Structure formats: C-alpha cells, structure tokens
Amino acid sequence: MNFSIPQLNLLLENIYIQSLLTFIFFLFLATIIILFYKRYIKKIALKTKTKADDIILEKSEKPVFYILLLVGIKMAIKPLSITNPAVQSGFDTLVIIVIAYIISSFVNTVISLWGKKIADATKSTLDDEILPLFHSFSKVLIWAIALIIIFDTWGVEIGPLLASLGIAGIAIAFALQTSLGNLFGSVSLILDKTFKVGDVIQLESGEIGQIVGVGLRSTKLKTFDNELLIIPNGQLSNSKIKNLAKPNNILRIVLPIGVAYGSDIDKVKETLLNTLKNIDGTVHSNDEKFKPRVRFIKMNDFSLDFELRFYIEDYKERFDISDKILSKAYKELNKQKIDIPFPTRTVYLKKD
C-alpha cells in the first residue's frame, strides 16, 4: 500500500497516530538505553573495585525503563487533549513512586556496603542492630518525602500536615531522649573507631577491662576481676577513654624502684637496665623512642627513687612481664649489695 505525501501528512496529523508514534519513540529510547546499560555501563562497573555501582546499576535497570515508559505514556496522551487532571496526576504519581524506589535502593545499597565495612573493621554487632535501623529510617524518610510530593501533585494542602508531623516528631524525640542519646552514642563510637571488640580500655572512672560487646544501647566491658560492666553508649561517648590497643599493641611500662641512701646511682642504673636482658616480650630496638631507660626521679624521705621505663610488644602481657622484671630486679639489686629500703622513723628523746 503506497502513501502519497499529502496522505502521509494527513495521517501524521491524526492525534491518535501522534500519540502512538510518541509512545513508540519512548519505548525505543528505553530499549536503547537498557541495551547501552548492559553492553557498556555494566562492563565499566565490573572493572571498578567497589561493588556499589554494580548493585545500583542492577537494581535501577528496570525502574529506569519503566520511568521512560511512563514519561512516554504521559507525552503520548497530550495530543489527545485529555483534560481530566486525575489522569495527569496519576501518571505523575507513578513516576514519583518509581523515582522514590530508585533513590531508596541506592541509599540502602550504600548503607549496606558502608555498614558491612565498618562492622568488619570493628567486629561489632553494627550490621545486626544499627543497619536495620538505618535502613528503616532511610526508607521512611524517602517515602515520606515522596508522599508529600504526591499530595502536592494531587493538590492536597500539605502545610497543616507538615506542622502536625513536626509536633509529633518533637514529642517522640522528648519521649525517647535517653534511648536516642544511646543510639547516637553507639554510632559516634563506631564512626570514630574508638575501640573494637577485644580491645582493653580504661574508663575515666578508673576501671580497666576488655570490650566483649558493642550493642545498640550499651557496651559490655569485662574487667580483670571477671566482672561485667554494662555502660550506656551515650555516657561512654561523652567520657574520656584510654584505649591500650591504640595505635598498636606496643605499650610502655614504668616501674618505680627505690634504693637506700648511699647507693651508687650509676651502678643502680646499670643493674636495672641489665634486668631487661633475655626477657621475652620486651621491645629490643635501636630506635631511640623504644630504648629502655632508667631515670633518677626523686630523693624521697627514706629512699632514692628511680623509674625503669621500657616497652613491651603486647600490652596484654604487661602484668606477666612486669612481674618477671621486678623479680629479677630484686634479685640483681641484692646480688650487687644494693639495699632496698623500707619506711623508717628515728625518734630522739630529749631529757630535761
């Protein structure tokens, strides 16, 4: 069947033909974009080190196709002069829903990858407790914004609704003030990488123990007396913490040692330094920073006070190594005829 140019122009002026051609154009465009996705974009994403782009591309492939189809349908019905606003609003609503789905998938993918990385680094229960909360919060926020936009598309007055939600949010925040403080405290502890499970820390109040669990509300600390301390994360994040495992396992030990007045100071220093020889676990390095030292600190009431300062390779061995060195120091001092004093007091009686 042959068409002349006038007949073809007449055919193209038909609003239904225009609508059909517009829809076919957008369908063709959507198909081309998806093919471009699969053949080129996905191959580029596979070459990157991160998996985030792969997951996002996979989840957004179909939604992008449907968005273009919906836009095509909306453009296709324009020549039909459909004046019913409900039809236009309906199509806008579908487009908003698909876009919100894409954004939600993207945000949740980023949260999952980020959370898994942090959880692996801290060996905490972040992925089990905080991540689902972040997922839920992001979904509620994204879909709440989408719902507000949909209401606006349908001509619904959203001002009073936002005011009501604001008041409700303030009330909920006050009611959950303590719980939210602990929640944000746990997040700040994890983001700051303050500690991880297995680290030994010292609290501001003086307790020392090993981290055995980091939860959503609290952190569990096991002391060396086998006591379990449960500390709210809000309180912990606002206090001063000494982490013995940071920046590494090397720890400096300072042992105070007193000798009697009249002792040879140089001989005392030499004897104490010799006690560090052949002690496993101590740091033996030519680096000035890690060299052991003996400092003459004070002439006390009944003793000359020294400090033996040295580094050990693992802070967890500090008690055993300190015990070995103190025992050896006592023996060496006795061997060198260096007296170790004890508190004495001389009382003079005056006769009248």
Summarize the structure.
The protein has 352 residues and is α+β, with helices and mostly antiparallel strands. The protein has ten helices and eight strands.
Structure commentary:
With 352 residues, the protein is an alpha+beta fold. The chain has three domains: 25-175, no CATH class; 195-243, SH3 type barrels (Roll), CATH 2.30.30; 251-335, 2-Layer Sandwich (Alpha-Beta Plaits), CATH 3.30.70.100. It has helices at residues 5-12, 15-47, 52-77, 85-122, 126-153, 159-175, 177-191, 233-237, 265-274, 318-335; strands at residues 200-202, 208-214, 218-223, 228-232, 242-243, 251-259, 293-299, 304-312. Strands 4-3-2-1-5 form a five-stranded antiparallel β-sheet. Helix 2 runs antiparallel to helix 3, helix 3 packs antiparallel against helix 4 (85-122) and helix 4 packs antiparallel against helix 5 (126-153). The termini are far apart. The mean pLDDT is 80.
Task: Reconstruct the topology from this structure.
Elements (H helix, E strand, L loop, with lengths): L4 H8 L2 H33 L4 H26 L7 H38 L3 H28 L5 H17 L1 H15 L8 E3 L5 E7 L3 E6 L4 E5 H5 L4 E2 L7 E9 L5 H10 L18 E7 L4 E9 L5 H18 L17
Antiparallel strand pairs: 1-2, 1-5, 2-3, 3-4, 6-8, 7-8
